[in-house]
Amino acid sequence: MLPTRSLTLRACSGRCFWLLFLETAVTTPADMDLGAARVFAVTLDGKAMAAMLRAQVKKDVDVLRQQGITVGLAVALIGDDPASQVYVRGKVKACQEVGIESTMQGLPATTTQAELVALVDLWNADPAVDGILVQLPLPKGIEQRAIIDRIDPSKDVDGFHPFNLGLLASGRPRLVACTPAGVMHMLKVYGQAYGWTPAGKRAVVLGRSITVGRPMSLLLTNADATVTVCHSRTPDLAGRVAEADVVIAAAGSPQLVKGAWIKPGAVVVDVGIHRSADGSLCGDVEYSTARLRAAALSPVPGGVGPMTIAQLMRNCVDAAAQRRGITFA
Ligand code: NAP
């Protein structure tokens, strides 16, 4: 039998709009020996989902503009870390595309804690600033936690402030960290298209950072999954992953999760991003083998990365609306 490919365009309700999934079903000679067609995982296409999310954000920006409100994001970039510069450029560009006014303040690596605190205070008090983002990591000598804690929680579009993490932990999320919120959006879109839900499922999250793993585990708990959080001291990682219906890999270790570990039919989201010596990108999951067992899998690149930036735009608009008591239809 010849390889078959099908593109599926599905309508999702609410804010999910149109979704393009690439489904690939291929029969290989090896499969024919087994007398069965092998179905590869549905690709969780972060690029397509992020484009749809940004389109909705743009509409909401326009709704606010009609009420005389211009959504504003202030970004601080301290030092000359090349990766941070690329990330900030991407965020500023995304703002332009959806109509958010962005201010980028570049500061030298010699910036003191007091100088950065003063800048955050200035933005906290500025009514034109709806969202404040201090690009991490910060240079040595500046205490990251103190800066995060200084940001007005109502403008904390990164969702790292303890107040916002606390709200998430208490099941009343307001501004949620962009990467895990983007992952949840992916799961929601997939669920609406395929009749799937995290509720009642066993989920495993690899990583417990406040930027990804920890909020991710809280979001899945709030969505009624039974969640196991794994970290560098977790024994038998393969065994934990093998039990999971949902795997979120955010350990920051290239191709840590082997395809053979994955429970057939699991939904797998790969948050990790790593550049190999040959310049190619890979994630925390061994993609080539995982796609033979998972029901759905996010690629790297083109998976979680675009969702993170789109979710930042979402958070900016939500922060602007929440501060003024506005809700979107
Ligand atoms: P991080 O702060 O370094 O945290 C990594 C977490 O993984 C830690 O909790 C660590 O455990 C755990 N870990 C490390 N090795 C492990 C292992 N062998 N088994 C199980 N757990 C292990 O990293 P992060 O900021 O959360 O980011 C994680 C990955 O996601 C990175 O590759 C990062 O580049 C990527 N990322 C991507 C995006 C995106 O938009 N695509 C956004 C953010 C992050 P301990 O707590 O015990 O140290």
Task: Describe, in plain words, how this protein is organized in 3D.
This protein is α/β, with parallel strands linked by helices and 329 residues long. The chain folds into 3 domains: 1-40; 68-158, Leucine Dehydrogenase, chain A, domain 1 (Rossmann fold), CATH 3.40.50.10860; 178-307, NAD(P)-binding Rossmann-like Domain (Rossmann fold, 3-Layer(aba) Sandwich). The chain is built from 11 helices and 14 strands. The chain has helices at residues 29-34, 46-66, 82-98, 113-125, 144-150, 162-169, 178-194, 213-222, 237-242, 287-290, 304-323, and strands at 4-11, 18-26, 38-39, 42-43, 72-78, 101-107, 131-134, 202-206, 226-230, 246-249, 267-270, 274-275, 281-282, 296-297. Strands 4-14-11-10-8-9 form a 6-stranded parallel beta sheet. The protein has a 3-stranded antiparallel beta sheet with strand order 1-2-3, covered by helices on one side. A 3-stranded parallel beta sheet has the order 6-5-7, with helices on both faces. β12 (274-275) and β13 (281-282) form a beta hairpin. α3 (82-98) crosses α11 (304-323), α7 (178-194) packs parallel to α8 (213-222) and α7 (178-194) packs across α11 (304-323). The longest helix has 21 residues, at 46-66. It starts with a strand and ends in a 6-residue tail after the last helix. Bound molecules: NADP nicotinamide-adenine-dinucleotide phosphate. NADP nicotinamide-adenine-dinucleotide phosphate (NAP) binds next to α11.
